Amino acid sequence: MFPLPNGVAYNSYLINDEKTALLDTVDAAISAEYLENITHALNGRQLDYLVINHMEPDHCANIEEILRRYPSVKVIGNPKTFQFFRQYYTMDMSDNYIEVKEGQEICLGSHTLRFYMAPMVHWPEVMVTYETSKGILFSADAFGAFGAISGNIFADELEYDSYFLDEARRYYTNIVGRYGNQVQALFKKLSGLEINMICGLHGHLWRGDMIPYIMDKYDKWSKYLPEKKGVVLAYGSMYGNTENAVNALAVKLAQRGIKDIRVYDVSKTHPSYIISDIFKYSHVVFAAPTYNMNLYFPMDSLIRELAVLNISNRKVSLIGNHTWASAALKNMTEMISNMKNMEIVGTPIDIKSSLREDREGELDNLADAIYESMDD
Ligand SMILES: Cc1cc2nc3c(=O)[nH]c(=O)nc-3n(C[C@H](O)[C@H](O)[C@H](O)COP(=O)(O)O)c2cc1C
């Protein structure tokens, strides 16, 4: 689904108390190592509980094998968890189920697990588990990130901001992005809890100062508010004329003193990266040609996906291109106007094949309008 140049981590947690509890499992790609790790960590003990916070296959591929190895294990989930289990897998584990409700607790000895439902963060069956003695939140896919873990497991042990944050944002915006309201609802539900550590199912673990750090990012992302001022210019181009106009505009923006300008060719860069940067920055320019009386399809697809992810509150400028009958600009304008609180900045430009010198003033005007709107 997504390019993973830095890999991805699948996290699963074992609590070794009077009772033993495993929280979620991992993807089929790493079953062998995972099962070896479980055997090692249990050191001959039985597994008493398996908590399924999230029934997505990348966390559930080993449930059946865990049941074969530990047939008396009690599997904790909610009615939807077990419904999805039956949809994906064939083993009958009805004798192992413990169905939990909101706020229900299970005591392991010195640790107690409390369950909170987190529907649509980002699947319907999702719940999170709060360990009450230490204040640890097992947050399912919330607070996850792309990027494998290289030794350090805590986000405070590395340069998170400069290296990992982009991949955390790309993960959130593309996977959870649509469900900002549900993320906010979960935050509200958990607001009274003392949370000392957050353990998600992908990427680094959060503790100390890194908890307010990532909560602040999540708050912005889930409210669809930009983190920074800056302009993403996303273009499609077959012969390079739209590309030329976008490059000229990028230089004009830089000449006006705008910082953080990001130019993307929608046919070359995977949309997940462009989407992530559009969530990050305040402004976006979409530029694309007309293609068989439609919007050039890679751009059409990008804007549709952004709409599905509920992107809102951005300042948008538009450039179309056509040779005999224009459709791209009209389609982009319609799509953007159907999104929430998207302000069109400057006068859209519809290039006729290539931007002639006598129309350069329009590009200057657009650059001025974008520059002026940066202060709003
Ligand atoms: C397959 C194809 C379909 C096209 N369809 C249209 C069209 O329906 N209407 C139009 O005005 N131009 C159409 N064009 C022309 C492009 O929109 C035009 O060449 C534009 O200037 C390309 O911009 P670019 O140089 O950035 O690729 C089409 C071009 C191609 C290759």
UniProtKB/TrEMBL annotation:
<dbReference type="InterPro" id="IPR045761">
    <property type="entry name" value="ODP_dom"/>
</dbReference>
<dbReference type="InterPro" id="IPR008254">
    <property type="entry name" value="Flavodoxin/NO_synth"/>
</dbReference>
<dbReference type="InterPro" id="IPR016440">
    <property type="entry name" value="Rubredoxin-O_OxRdtase"/>
</dbReference>
<dbReference type="GO" id="GO:0016651">
    <property type="term" value="F:oxidoreductase activity, acting on NAD(P)H"/>
</dbReference>
<dbReference type="GO" id="GO:0009055">
    <property type="term" value="F:electron transfer activity"/>
</dbReference>
<dbReference type="InterPro" id="IPR029039">
    <property type="entry name" value="Flavoprotein-like_sf"/>
</dbReference>
<dbReference type="Pfam" id="PF19583">
    <property type="entry name" value="ODP"/>
</dbReference>
<dbReference type="GO" id="GO:0010181">
    <property type="term" value="F:FMN binding"/>
</dbReference>
<comment type="similarity">
    <text>In the N-terminal section; belongs to the zinc metallo-hydrolase group 3 family.</text>
</comment>
<feature type="domain" description="Flavodoxin-like">
    <location>
        <begin position="231"/>
        <end position="371"/>
    </location>
</feature>
<protein>
    <recommendedName>
        <fullName>Flavodoxin-like domain-containing protein</fullName>
    </recommendedName>
</protein>
<dbReference type="InterPro" id="IPR036866">
    <property type="entry name" value="RibonucZ/Hydroxyglut_hydro"/>
</dbReference>
<dbReference type="Pfam" id="PF00258">
    <property type="entry name" value="Flavodoxin_1"/>
</dbReference>
<dbReference type="GO" id="GO:0046872">
    <property type="term" value="F:metal ion binding"/>
</dbReference>
<dbReference type="InterPro" id="IPR001279">
    <property type="entry name" value="Metallo-B-lactamas"/>
</dbReference>
